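My current task is to audit a protein record that another person submitted. I have pasted the whole thing underneath without changing anything:
***
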Amino acid sequence: MTESSLSAAPPSSRPAREPKLRAQDSAGEPPVIQVSGLEKRYKTARGELELFCDLQLVVHPGEMVAIVGQSGAGKSTLLHILGALDAPSAGTVYCASTNVAGLSPREAAAFRNREIGYVWQFHYLLPEFTALENVAMPLLARGQHRREALAVAANWLREVGLEDRADHRPGELSGGEQQRVALARALVNNPRLLLADEPTGDLDEVTAGRVFDLVERLHASHGLTSILVTHNLDLAARCSRALRLESGRLSPLAAAPELGPLAGEM
């Protein structure tokens, strides 16, 4: 996968935003993520489980932040809260200048479609549709005309080096190709924020490295802010910052004791 094979005409420009509430940083520019006093509790048969305790997080525009931690620490739940897929039990959560905890279900769905790109460990492509149609799905869901949506999707397939796989269905693609289609689908709406939950976790080492290279390039070339959950400490070290989620709080990875492999996750 060469750089020349991944070039493409720029996708359509990002639509204008109408944020509900803004939280300013000290420089006057709003952080893309600003979390304060975050708590998340679940009721279980053994009593209440507290997942986060006064969790704090600020992510500025253009950062690529890695989050690592033990299984069950709440990494995926944190991404869900940041992306308006789940609600906090307490605390404030601003994402893309919007108080996501205050959104109605309909507003949250519109917010996700406009501002957030998601990539998961498993690609979740629709098997009955082609790669091109899968990439176009978020645009079609937003009501864009099919011809226009497919044209934008074709540009994004070119971006990830898969223009020659446009008519292939997911079952006809390799694991790395499927994840590249999923990445194109996540970015087809030109979101401000990319949330990636183990985007290379289901791939072999070589393919994972290539996919991460692509994520890095798209992050830079499209002015993204990205948060990635990963078990791979080498990939985490390539990000702007690496944080460890442990005991309900985030701390810089370098400051965490006994870095070593993450038990049960390598």
Remarks:
- Strands lie at 33-44, 47-59, 64-68, 90-95, 98-99, 116-119, 193-197, 225-229, 241-246, 249-252.
- The longest helix spans residues 205-221.
